[in-house]
Amino acid sequence: MSEYAQAQNRERQQRLERVWGNLPGWGALAAVNHTTVGLRFIATGLMFFLVGGLLAMLIRTQLALPGQDIIESGLYNQLFTMHGTVMMFLFAIPVLEGLAMYLIPKMIGTRDLVFPRLSALGYFCYVFGGLIVLSSLVLEVAPDAGWFMYTPLSSATYSPGPGSDFWLLGITFVEISAISAGIELVVSILRTRAPGMSLNKMPIFCWYILAMALMIVFGFPPLILGSVLLELERAAGFVFFETAGGGDPLLWQHLFWLFGHPEVYIIFLPAAGIVSTLIPVFARHPLVGYRWIVLSIITMGFISFGLWVHHMFTVGIPHLAQAFFSVASMLVAIPTGIQIFSWLATLWQGKVVFHLPMLWIIGFLVVFVCGGLTGVMLALAPFNWQVHDTHFVVAHMHYVLVGGMLFPLVAGLYYWLPHVSGRMPSDSLGRWGFWLFFGGFNLTFLLMHLTGLLGMPRRIYTYEAGLGWDWLNLVSSVGGFIMAIGVAVIVVDIVLHFRFGKRAEQNPWGADTLEWAIPMPVNTFNFSSLPSVDTRHPMWHTPRLVESIAAGEHGLADVQALRRDIYGSDATTGKLQEVVHLPTNSWLPLMTASALAALCVSLLMKAYLLAAVFTIVALGLVLRWGWENGAHPRAAPTDHNEAGAPPLHSRTFSGPGLWGMVVGLMADGTFYASLMFGWFYLWTAAPEWTVPAHDSVTLLPMILSGLVLTVAVIAYCHLVKGLRRGFAAHLGARLWLIAALGVGHWVLLAGQLVSAPLAPTERAHDAVLVVILLYLLLHSGLAVIFTSLQAVRARLGYTAVQLPYEPVVIQPFWLYTLGVYWVSFVAFVLLSNAWSVG
Amino acid sequence: MKSSPVHPVHLFLGLAIWAAWFVVLYGGLSVGCTIAPPDSEEQAGTWINGAIVVVASLVGGYLLWCAYRCAQASSQAKLQRDNRLGVFISKTAAAVYLVSSIASLALGVPGVLLPPCV
Amino acid sequence: MFGWFTAVLVGVIALWLFAIKRSPGKASAAHLRKVQKRWIIWGGLALPVSTITVVLAFGLPLGQRMLPQSSPEGGELRIEVTAHQWWWEVNYPDSGISLRNELHIPAGRPVNLHLTSADVIHSFWVPRLGGKLDAIPGHTNILRLHADEAGTYRGQCAEFCGRDHAHMGFTVTAHEPSDYQQWVGQEVSDE
Q1: What is the pTM assigned to this prediction?
Q2: Euclidean distance between CA atoms A829 and A810, whole angstroms
Q3: What is the pLDDT of residue A838?
Q4: How many CA atoms lie within 13 A of C2 on its CB side?
Q5: Chains contacting C (3+ CB pairs below 8 angstroms)
Q6: Between C56, C61, C69, which is nearest B42 by CB?
Q7: A294 vs B92: CB contact, 8 Å cut-off?
Q8: Is the peptide bond before A160 cis (omega within 30 degrees of 0)?
């Protein structure tokens, strides 16, 4: 390259840096860039890990000797509840999400995730939610009913303090962040891969994350529903889990484990993805059985939803039903087996180069296989009846979670450290850390299997001497402290390496995936030009890749109209479809998350008026957020002489927004389906289920309201169809008309809620009905607001026949609202009547 | 299976059917035991057991047929050059259908052995 | 079961370590693909499938036998147990005896415990006499208890139930059949 060309290239890269960079100083809080947000997720998650570990140390101190009184029962209960909660909700999931957010755009050859402001919102929700949960420990009112919050122990009668409220509100807050990250990852992986990266050329890690993200979308809503219902029961006295009035405490267990078991796999899949990424690199051999692994990822994703009842084998479910879950629990061993032997075959074929991350991978194998085998034992109901809720399960669970998640995670951290810092981790200190941790871990938990078989139950704060558990507990505690020293060594190692590590060269491990084509340490825009991909191993098979990307020889090399541009591509083939323009730094995520946090805190203080104010503030901020979107001139500034091919996504019919809406509705639909499940469950299984003697809602207004809604939706679909054909006369007026119809529907329905003689605090039937009505009102209300805003935008010219993007995004929301309305109508009005007649 | 056997929906449709079958099985069992509990409660071989076995073989058989369709499509796709994606999708889909078929049948096995409502 | 599982564990780890140490020879691509397939099919499919089949074949009937069926000759003893925070209320409906935190049963004869709870969820567990079963408010679960030999067995609440969960223990005393009758007689006359 000539000197002149080099200078030109530098200037080009500076232009990219200006557009993609974060704001200086406090402005960093407005950052939406996936690299920044991903790293913040990881760092915050590791902080929470240290807190959770500290709690575990306190627990082990108390249990070290029989009959100790260092920690009294009430505090101990808070400690183990918080240990589980922090590790699961505030460490494991967010850290892996952060890792995925950091890596995915880099692996698929693009510059950012597809909804950057959502990433930032997710992060702030996570931090605020986490701090709310932790603050309860400082205030000495931490939740103490176990991380599983079984009712009725967690309900207002038996946990009168605010502990359970902290848990329910804080964790729901954190889960919103998880779901938003899940939606964003799904759409990013499907729609913004490098041109030419068809499904079969996707790095295997992306398959794992795709499955994880979809599982989050389907797995978290049941728990959010459960938390909402339990909080309604605690705060407003609604009946859902109280036996008197027709609730059932087992409903909580179903909802909790409907989330809880998939969650284990949500944690395991990305960790397995790390293993599948690292092994081929260190074996210098492509992953054996790529297709087999994809098969097992998909299988795991589904089958893990069919296991939840195995946490409930001792609640008295018919044996045949238990057997189904036994079978499903064992089936999940097959995809695991396939992966383990694929990794083995890769190592077998390759010439292995041994580095520190490989040590952690081997640690993973030993610990995880052991945990998997005890898992197969536990899936067997009679064995489970014996050891359920003993320390055997504690040991099993730690083998699976620490083995299946923490070991690969640390391997991954060491592996990707140079990517962030540009320096290599030290080998010797790292080895010390590994052996201390590995040794301490096995000392703690291997013997704990025996403690459990000898009959020591879980969650007891003390035990009597002479039951044969004394020396086992002492050894476990010693092991726990060795493990803690190991963690400290690792932390020191990582901190020191930022200062003293030796400079890493480009692609230090000789990896095959695109993230290593980025200059190290990482910059803000990833690729200075966006490459096309025609192989599964671009870094191995494409010559001059790093140089040509840096020289700007590929796509979107220069900035257009100060926009953040990336490529959008076809979900299956990866063919280039459009240019997606992303929003830049924004304060809105922080403001929205703060409003939500304030809402949370005012609910905790039972200041409901204040809560209503903050709800309105949050809604206003979200709408403001949506306003600067699509074809809004601040969102998509254009040069007039800009070439139109590929088109900007706001000029198309199937932009990422539509995908985001559909995936979001999947989560919403799961929430609704869980609610329906709860309804049918209480109906068939609650011991004291009662139906009111008279009809709860009046048939005629319900039908009328539904018909008005149907007309509105038909009109809306007609409008979108017209847009697709290039016809948009009276766009604004028609949108106003549809919104007006929606208002009519809403008023009729709200009238039902007000006038119906419902007693949600006395009958579970009425409580569920109220929730359903509120749910329907929320949806049609939002649809009306969205449509009215579209009408305003049509007048301002942001929505038009050549700018059809947004009405298309809102269409699925209308259809969904219509669908849930009629389903609820059939389930509540028709079926319910037929039942009480028959 | 009307759509083309190389459509990516086949990558998960089989397991979606399995999931639906699982829900029907678990839900149907509790409803069946509530509405019409069989007379002899303590042996396998009631009408519920029969229904489980019949539906399990229907679902399993259908999925097996789907697996066969996809496997055939993959050998056709192989004939076209540059259709690696098609081969990938149809082969993986065939395996997914096969797995779902086995999993669906496996769920039926306890139905042969155990009494339904205790 | 434990033996076989330990063997699998050690075997898999040894294979991995060997695979890491081993340097691959030169072989044709077709041969390589065959070797790979063999690993995945035998290790990844056949091994777990056969293990699961064996485990289920033993496990399902075993679970079936542990169920509280009414045996042909009848004659199970019925005891009603209600869990409270943090103690156990025990009632013998046949003889009207009520006890607190202790059960007396005849050895060698099946006993059906009808479990329920007055407040939160508890779980009835005597480690040496078999599995545990939850006591849930509003539900009654039936647990089959069978002591082969006379003696005293320690039991404990196994589902976390609040502050004094750790102290919610009880004892089960199994008597020889004749001693048991004597005990019943004594209790009834005491009341």
Answers
A1: 0.94
A2: 28
A3: 43
A4: 4
A5: A, B
A6: C69
A7: yes
A8: no
